[in-house]
Amino acid sequence: MTLELQQNHIVVSRQLIQHAEEELADGEPLQASEKAWGAVAHLLKAIVRQRRWRHGGHHHFFQIIDQLVEETGDDEIETFFSVADGLHGNFYNGFKSESAVRSNIQKVKLLITKLTAIYDSGVEE
Questions:
Q1: Other beta carbons less than 10 A from residue 50's beta carbon
Q2: Angle formed by the axes of helices 98-121 and 2-25, to 10°?
Q3: Mean pLDDT in runs of 10 for the chain (125 residues)?
Q4: Is 52 exposed, middle or buried (0-12, 13-18, 19+ CB in 10 A)?
Q5: DSSP state, 52?
Q6: Model's pTM, two decimal places?
Q7: What's residue 124's pLDDT?
Q8: What sections of the chain are H helices per DSSP?
Q9: How far apart are alpha carbons 46 and 7 in whole angstroms?
Q10: 1-25: buried (b, 16+ CB within 10 Å) or exposed (e) per residue?
Q11: Max alpha carbon distance in the chain (Å)?
């Protein structure tokens, strides 16, 4: 059951990043922002389930990111996560221009690549 839930989060993550790009192409930067954030959140949930780490809400994502940075030594994970979190905030407040959202989504895609590699490594603690 846990593997099934992990795989569902992976599928949803892939769908959401694709939807983010479609929303942006349709001139909907707020929706694109939230979809990009959702793609990251679902991928992190897959990692959390895989590793049986504690996760209780949005604030735990920051602790998870810290753990992954410590594990990998890759500071870009935290940098790109901050970008994704900023997109989440943009959904509610609309403070980013469409070009900024476009640029941020490209950074989120880099984060997704990094997180996918971590997930695919299957390392469990």
A1: 21
A2: 160
A3: 84 97 97 98 95 84 96 98 97 96 98 96 61
A4: exposed
A5: T
A6: 0.92
A7: 45
A8: 2-25, 29-51, 58-72, 76-93, 98-121
A9: 7
A10: eeeeebeebbebbeebbebbbebbe
A11: 42
